[in-house]
Predict the structure.
Amino acid sequence: MKNKKNHPYFKALQKAIDVIGSQSAVARAVGVTQQTVYLWDYVPAHHVLKVEAATNGAVTRHELRPDLYPPNE
């Protein structure tokens, strides 16, 4: 992913990290290591709902992966 910091998926991931508190906290919420979260350019499909739940809906599945979750779903 070129210039990933400006990509909407990466921005949503960063927002989730900020809401949850840290990469380590995100990792604990989804059952992976902090290093795994560090390597993500976006939230993998099988972790989207867990991340959304860990943010108490502050970051939606649509924000995290609009390619998989269209608006209103």
Notes: The chain has a mean pLDDT of 94. The helical segments are 8-20, 23-30, 34-39, 48-54, 61-64.
